[in-house]
Specification:
By secondary structure, this protein is mainly β. 6% of the residues lie in helices and 44% in strands. The protein has two helices and 15 strands. Strands 3-4-5-13-8-11 form a six-stranded antiparallel beta sheet, with no helix packed on it. Strands 10-9-12 form a three-stranded antiparallel beta sheet, with no helix packed on it. A two-stranded antiparallel ribbon has the order 1-2. Strand 6 and strand 7 form a beta hairpin.
Length: 186
């Protein structure tokens, strides 16, 4: 019996292989998540904000399966707000997930169903458990790409709509030269 090569390879840049699915988001794709729309309008909306490479060895919704991926979140700011991912809850609300830092620096912003927020620093080697019932968004607070890995159940699903409609209860912005959690004034 022959030993065959795996369908994907994990590299310093993320995932490579014929079974890797990729996608990207430009600033134009995610423009509604930024608070400072005036600052956003001065930027190139075709600029890449982040790209994702994933491996889906089982079908979406398969109970007991796992998905695996890497995100490259580019550096930049819209006004004082750092480039970030859209953020989401899981459709299967009780589902957890793991993220881990590969390179760069950033923050993982959490928000529970009561809209309580907190954040963890992301850096090479950091490991982050995202519990069920918690929305999460990643922010690049550095000046190089933030690359992080993720592993989540294949039946978790993504609920982007709740965040799209209600937003996060806090943002991470540059304040006095450093990233800080900022609660927006109503």
């Amino acid at each position: 019996m022959d030993i065959i090569p795996p369908p994907i390879q994990v590299t310093q840049r993320g995932l490579e292989g014929t079974e890797v699915s990729t996608s990207q988001r430009t600033l134009g794709d995610i423009q509604s998540i930024f608070a400072d729309q005036e600052a956003l309008n001065s930027l190139d909306l075709d600029q890449k904000a982040y790209e994702v490479a994933c491996y889906f060895p089982v079908g979406q919704g398969k109970e007991g399966g796992l998905f695996y991926g890497f995100t490259t979140l580019y550096p930049g700011k819209v006004g004082k707000e750092y480039f970030m991912t859209k953020g989401h809850f899981h459709q299967k609300i009780d589902t957890g997930e793991f993220y881990w830092g590969v390179s760069g620096k950033g923050a993982l912003l959490f928000m529970d169903l009561n809209r309580k927020v907190w954040a963890e620093e992301m850096k090479p080697g950091s490991l982050h458990y995202i519990p069920g019932r918690v929305a999460h968004r990643t922010i690049n607070t550095g000046d190089e790409p933030l690359i992080f890995g993720a592993c989540w159940p294949s039946d978790a699903g993504h609920n982007y709509e709740t965040i799209q409609q209600q937003g996060f209860a806090a943002r991470i912005k540059e304040v006095d030269g450093a990233p800080k959690i900022v609660i927006p004034e109503n």
